[in-house]
Design brief:
Length: about 475
């Protein structure tokens, strides 16, 4: 002989005990870095159906279903991935995220065929620099990123990809060595006037297709510079490739006072049909703006005065950038493809170098800065500027609540979270629909718990009363059973 209320009370005790445990854990982690609180939902348990009801018949009217309630049960326990508060700290290596996304960590820092091995994800940016210069968390796991500086050769990396074609005038720019052009470009100057391109401080001058439009290719052409009053016009006439028409003209108007960032400038040249080519200049450290390279112009477009530089992919390239390869710098990162991203993945490391004309200078660990897009820039004691060596990798997911919590602020994917979309802030994303367009990475900042203590304590009181009520139901049911047994 049992009473149904006895089991309803027991279910109530179980459900509210689970809710109290969830709330207790939230309160306990109120000061845990990047902790994401849990929320529990209740639902009624499966009822005891006594009758399913009936429709009207010739003799009787209809009847409604009859069911005894089955009590309550925990419907789900989900993780709340809402933004936590950001607090300033002193160390530059500490990183807080504003907006969605997670850092990508690896226990061994290895990349196999473009895939990071032993991967976990976190919002906890409590990182530090280890003895080897790697950016790691407090467990020693490596913070992964896209690295476009080759520490062994002290040069910027190149990507060899069929997606890219490029015609260049480029010299081998090694970190710590002076910049000397290896190939003398050919100039054609009209008879009306003269203009000069100062090549002594140029380490790279390249026109690239396949960066913004992968349907075209080029192999050579003529690059012209002219100036009309306040604007400088860059014109590239493609003379060999698969453009339609066969010889196409691409132009861009740029302010000559444009300042170099990371010792390079990149912008798009556009033709009449909207196709684009990427134009990039990389310069010596002391160069600050365009007008220091392109000089001697007459400010009158009617005279047509300018200077042209003939590109030939066969003769005006070097071993560092040949054929379908792209030498990377910070400005190139928004243009690379997801497949090329796999070739750049590596643990973030601050190399012990500095930018100097003197290759015999003492090597020391560079100071560094981490930008809001995750770019990592280093600066040496003899440098007047900074050089970007890579960018911290980010991840995004279709369903954050589907991630599996491994403890210590670490998560792994599940079949319900979807695969991680690896990406660079402001750049390439493996899944364009999951691009982190509004996310910022803030150095010297940490994200703290998103737990609202006042709300949790309020819920604790409600859960406590629910448990007490359910326990009282069990007591009353027991007393009723005693009465029945004494009949």
């Amino acid at each position: 002989m049992t009473l149904h209320s006895l089991f309803i009370g027991r279910r109530g005790i179980d459900a509210h005990q689970m809710a109290i445990n969830t709330t207790t854990n939230n309160i306990a982690n109120v000061n845990s870095i990047a902790f994401k609180g849990s929320k529990i939902g209740f639902e009624n348990a499966i009822p005891d159906i006594k009758s399913i009801g009936s429709g009207p018949n010739g003799a009787l009217g209809s009847t409604n279903p009859k069911a005894l309630g089955g009590g309550v049960q925990a419907a789900n326990i989900r993780t709340d991935f809402s933004q936590g508060s950001l607090r300033n700290v002193r160390e530059q290596s500490k990183l807080g995220l504003e907006g969605p996304g997670m850092f990508v960590l690896s226990s061994n820092g290895e990349v196999d065929n473009g895939q990071i091995t032993d991967t976990v994800f976190t919002r906890d940016g409590n990182f530090s620099i280890d003895a080897d210069g790697h950016l790691v968390n407090n467990k020693g796991q490596f913070v992964m990123g896209a690295i476009f500086y080759n520490e062994s050769t002290e040069e910027m990396k190149s990507i060899n990809s069929p997606d890219y074609t490029t015609v260049n005038y480029v010299s081998n720019q090694a970190i710590g060595s002076s910049i000397e052009p290896q190939v003398s470009p050919s100039f054609s100057i009209n008879s009306i006037g003269a203009a000069d391109i100062d090549t002594t401080n140029i380490s790279e001058l390249s026109i690239r297709s396949g960066m913004s439009d992968k349907s075209v290719s080029i192999s050579d052409g003529t690059f012209e510079v002219s100036q009309d009053r306040e604007l400088m016009t860059f014109t590239f006439t493609e003379t060999s490739g698969d453009f339609e028409p066969p010889a196409d003209v691409f132009k861009a108007d740029v302010n000559p006072s444009l300042i170099f960032e990371n010792k390079s400038i990149t912008f798009d040249l556009t033709n009449g049909t909207g196709q684009t080519l990427q134009f990039r200049i990389r310069v010596a450290p002391e160069v600050t703006k365009l007008s220091e390279i392109f000089t001697g112009f007459v400010f009158d477009k009617d005279l047509g005065i300018g200077s042209s530089l003939t590109f030939d992919s066969a003769s005006n390239s070097t071993t560092t950038q040949v054929g379908n390869s792209v030498t990377l710098a910070a400005d190139d990162m928004p243009f690379i493809s997801p497949s090329d991203l796999g070739g750049l993945l590596a643990p973030i490391k601050m190399p012990p170098i500095f930018y100097s004309f003197n290759p015999n200078s003492e090597i020391t660990l560079s100071s560094y800065l981490i930008g809001t897009d995750g770019s990592v820039e280093i600066e040496g004691k003899e440098s007047t500027g900074r050089m970007a060596i890579g960018q911290i990798l980010m991840s995004n997911f279709n369903n954050y609540e589907g991630l599996v919590n491994k403890g210590e602020g670490l998560y792994v994917t599940s079949s319900n979270s979807g695969a991680a979309s690896l990406q660079l802030l402001g750049g390439v994303s493996q899944n364009p629909n999951l691009a982190l367009e509004q996310t910022r990475m803030i150095s010297s900042t940490l994200e703290f718990s998103n737990v609202d203590v006042g709300a949790e304590l309020t819920k604790m009181v409600a859960y406590q009363r629910g448990l007490q009520g359910s326990a009282r139901v069990v007591t009353v049911a027991d007393e009723l059973m005693q009465v029945l047994l004494q009949l």
